[in-house]
Amino acid sequence: MERTFVMVKPDGVRNGLIGDIVSRFEKKGFTLRGIKLMHIDRPLAERHYGEHREKPFFGELVDYLTSGEVCAMVWEGKHAVANARSLIGKTNPVEAVPGTIRGDFAMDVASNVVHGSDSPENAEREISLFFGDSAAA
Ligand code: ATP
């Protein structure tokens, strides 16, 4: 069964959204395989978002991700990566439709509440990065 990595970002944790987000994944039919509250240091944030290193917003992105605790999760299910991205909604909350997590809880692309892996390969890479050998599962 496919797995995906989902992370409630610091704004989502601060705003008390962990429960709602977990509930949406459970109701959709995903199985929770791992969950932990943690503080990300800058090297981990930089590795996680390495593909954006050259983007003008990279510094802001790392500041944001390290600004408070995150909730890292592993969810399993059929087409887990694509189904999770559907629940999460478009990257820019302005374009995310109501009913999606970003459509309901976010206003700005720079603080969009939640992350979901964009491919099964990246999901496994991110699960190793955040859960290491204890990985979930
Ligand atoms: P994520 O990887 O967080 O799930 P995504 O795959 O939907 O997001 P990406 O294009 O990979 O979207 O962007 C990664 C993250 O970088 C976004 O979730 C957002 O937090 C941040 N980001 C993207 N574009 C901007 C921008 N123009 N300004 C500030 N932050 C941005």
Question: Characteristics of this structure?
Answer:
137 residues; alpha+beta; Alpha-Beta Plaits; four-stranded antiparallel β-sheet; 7 helices; 42% helix; 19% strand; globular; binds adenosine-5'-triphosphate
Describe the model.
- The protein has helices at residues 10-14, 18-28, 42-48, 58-65, 80-88, 101-105, 120-131, and strands spanning 3-8, 31-39, 69-76, 114-116.
- The chain is globular.
- It has seven helices and four strands; from the N terminus they run βααβααβααβα.
- It has 137 residues and is of the alpha+beta class.
- It has a four-stranded antiparallel sheet with strand order 2-3-1-4.
- The protein has one domain: Alpha-Beta Plaits.
- The model has no long low-confidence stretch (mean pLDDT 96).
- It starts with a strand and ends in a 6-residue tail after the last helix.
- Bound molecules: adenosine-5'-triphosphate.
- Adenosine-5'-triphosphate is lined by residues 52, 57, 60-61, 91, 109-110, 112, 115-116, 118.
- Major role in the synthesis of nucleoside triphosphates other than ATP. The ATP gamma phosphate is transferred to the NDP beta phosphate via a ping-pong mechanism, using a phosphorylated active-site intermediate.
- Its EC number is 2.7.4.6.
- Belongs to the NDK family.
